[in-house]
Amino acid sequence: ATPTALLVGTGRGAQLGILIKGPEVLESTRRVDTVVLDKTGTVTEGRMSVVDVVVEEGTDAAELVRLAGATEHASEHPIARAIAAFGRVVPELVEGPSAQAPWVPDASTGSAAQGWVPVEGFQNIEGRGVTGIVDGHAVLVGRHSLLEDWSIHPSPALLAAKAAAESAGQTAVLVAWDGASRGLIVVADQVKATSAEAVASFRALGLTPVLLTGDNEAAARHIAAQVGIDEVIAEVLPAEKVAVVHRLQAEGRVVAMVGDGVNDAPALAQADLGMAMGTGTDAAIEASDITLVRGDLRAASDAIRLSRRTLGTIK
Ligand code: ADP
Ligand code: MG
């Protein structure tokens, strides 16, 4: 490989919105056979919004949104942002329970919210949910397993609603307080318009796409099917993403990983080729060999095609 040809390759990359850390990156890019894709923020937009609220018998939906919103307000997670933003459009949810249950967001309801009731003892449980005390209630918002740890059991009807949302590709988080299951909040994200085309380009290059996520299996499968991915690794805790990349490498695969989150950084560093969404976190960008400036997944296949072409002209 002559340095000049490699530099021409990296220069062309910059024009395509692909920032390559150094010419040596192109060499590992060429050998890649598997592309691991983070789901939220990489394949999907990563901007979640609340689409439904389901309550256990006897629970007021407005009260559920109020307590869950006050707890999630302290978190930066996309699910938390969706729930906090949802409560904010209906001021009475923030200030106190209302007579009706206005869980359909309506930005026209008037004045901005005064702010959430403060949460005490807030705890973020990585990849599982959040807890805190709001108005004297011990609130939990998160996965089923988080509630189980506290011996809280959602009703069969609530779990059925959860399963239905998940099989439609949505994410349902359970809400409990004072030791009882109270309901759930369904959030949805959108697949990026360019993701399916990007996956098709990976396949055209002979690469196997794999979807990796902390989200539930059913939602992950639904999103995977929408973009043309067969291999799904779901319900992976943030700290375990790196081990998944390591395991694929141990199977003899040469792995490219594309991600955007702080959680993805160790996996991006472990991959033979790490690619970060330019729209993502600094941690992901720093851990990566390549930055896809516009956050468009098609740039990931462009990068691999470019490096093959560049090195191909050299050999
Ligand atoms: P992803 O890999 O899609 O970014 P995470 O690993 O961050 O997902 O989270 C995995 C799952 O943990 C979520 O789908 C959700 O069920 C639960 N979870 C994580 N953070 C929160 C939160 N702040 N509120 C509610 N649930 C959460
Ligand atoms: Mg992500």
Automatic annotation (TrEMBL):
Superkingdom in the source lineage: Bacteria
Family named by the database record: Belongs to the cation transport ATPase (P-type) (TC 3.A.3) family. Type IB subfamily.
Organism per entry: Microbacterium istanbulense
Subcellular location: Cell membrane
Name this protein carries in UniProt: Heavy metal translocating P-type ATPase
